[in-house]
Amino acid sequence: MANSERSARIDAALDEAKRAFAAARPKTEAMQARAAAVMPGGNTRTVLFSAPFPVRVEKAEGSRLTDIDGHSYLDLLGEYSAGIYGHSHRRIMAAARDALAMGLNFGAQHGEEVKLAETVTRRFALDLVRFTNSGTEANMMALAAARCFTGRRRIMPLRGGYHGGTLYFSHGASPVNAPFDCVLGLFNDIDATQLLIAGHADDLAAVILEPMLGGGGCISASPEFLAMLRQETAARGIVLIFDEVMTSRLHPGGLAAKTGIEPDLKTLGKYVGGGMSFGAFGGKRAIMELFDPTRPDALPHAGTFNNNTLTMTVGQVAMTEVFTPDACVELNERGDRLRSALNELFMRYQVKMRATGQGSMIAIHPTAGDIARPEDLDATDKRLRQLLFLDLLADGIYMAERGFMALSLMVTDEDCARVVSAVEAHITARRDLLV
Ligand code: PLP
Q1: Are residues 242 and 143 in the same domain?
Q2: Which of 210, 310, 376, 397 has the most CB atoms in a 10 Å sphere around its CB?
Q3: For the whole model, what pTM was predicted?
Q4: Can you point out the beta strands (E) in 78-181?
């Protein structure tokens, strides 16, 4: 098929899928119009927007979501990796009720923050930790700590990295980013990045990266790339920060433990608070103790809700009783099986699709060939991602429009088999567009 004909057929298929989506959701469409009158585009979190308008959920239970038009979906998005416990987990609900009974905001220190700090430092090998309200805030604080510790100004994120709403480096720096002086490294490009580090070493405070890109397409950093970063930063007095806001779920001790490369600081977020707003930064004592308020030169670190009892109590129960090291291993094995099954399917049908990631985090890409760097995804056709997303929704499966999924503990092997069947149905229906 000629490229122009194929492109026209993708447009037609997508238009039809959008029409069918809208026709089946009159209440959602009406609510979208109402939302758009008071929020830009009817949206208060950009990533949740999808065309023609997003699903609007009424309730959630276990691994299922129900929208306001009464459609039910298997939740494969898992709140972009934060929803690891599924919905309304009984032990989490009980912990939340305990926190409510204890009182929410004391304006004072309490025991629950100590317990969670003990759990988190032990599990993720941190000397000291500080809590925040989000992953974005954790990264902002980790970068600030690195700049104060080194007395240097500049930071090095990597192209394709996402560290929060104000730290977004998908294709260079986003216009709404915090005004850090940045030099962008290149993910998995050892020579180019090594050269950049050497060239900017005098004024480089920190190198920050996700050891596997999450939002950037579930692309793992190679062991050689990580080893180079560790070696270069250590030799030049630069703070190495692993953003493990997503990836800490991939191994009982986080991805750093799995790779065997220990950064100076790590940041955490998402699921660690048991589903409540959460962030944390921590690591080497020499850096973190700059925040010790008993020091005359202590750095300030504020945040009204940093130690709110809801997050601290629920997070402690979630991390010690629900997402135990054994549960973590089992969940990631299930994800590995699902990714393999998807890739086998793509091979069998000889379609240009690939599933990347590790363990319970998976991304499906409409492309053939190796995906080792973010640049390998530059030429993918966004319309094919949308088509898969809408086809799976029509089949009762919810994931991110960009092809991202993060399994929760409530997703079963049977659910995964259903996902494989639904993707197979998409392939057989759209095969001419995917070869
Ligand atoms: N870092 C990574 C790797 C993330 O994926 C995210 C959120 O998706 C963040 C940081 C920001 O976390 P939050 O949304 O809690 O601010």
Answers
A1: yes
A2: 210
A3: 0.98
A4: 128-132, 154-156, 158-159, 161-162, 168-169
